[in-house]
Amino acid sequence: MKTEQRSPWREPMVWLVAAIPALSFFAVGGLFWAASRAGGVDRVADRVERTGQIQVANTGPVEQAMQRGLKALIKWDGKRLEVYPASGTFDRSQNLILKLHHPVTADEDRSVSLIGTVHGWAAEVALPTGHDWLLELEPQDGSWRLEGRWPAGQQAALLAPSLAVAQ
């Protein structure tokens, strides 16, 4: 009895031998692409210097905010962003910069200049509310800095120094 010989292209094993490495190649390329587009997941986007396994960041602005006892409340009504001093002594003549960091995608980070008002600082801005924001508030000279997290859907958040007071 003579069996009819099939073409190698009709055999599933030939396709698996070729397809698995090809799909792996494209999957690794997709992972590299996604990793290059993602932002950091750090709570604060400080510039960090690395030497060996030691990471050094400038905590001077946060320490200055702690010494002055600064805290602020930020509110958003859908179109106007307002910052009110909650404690400490703020220099009301200085305009402030609010940095809003997307928790995952750095491309969606924003920076808003806040102009002094009678009760605090304000700016007109449109913000997406479908995700949390990591916040940094500082004067234009960068002498102090407050941080906080703004959960999705909330209209207000508290900003405070990120370091704990040493006992």
Automatic annotation (TrEMBL):
- Domain of life per record: Bacteria
What keywords sit in the KW lines?
Membrane, Transmembrane, Transmembrane helix
The major lineage groups are: Bacteria, Pseudomonadati, Pseudomonadota, Gammaproteobacteria, Lysobacterales
- The protein's name in its UniProt record: FixH family protein
Membrane-crossing ranges are: 12-35
Q: Which InterPro entries match?
A: FixH
What species is given as this protein's source?
Answer: Lysobacter soyae
Q: Please give the Pfam families that the UniProt record associates with this protein.
A: FixH
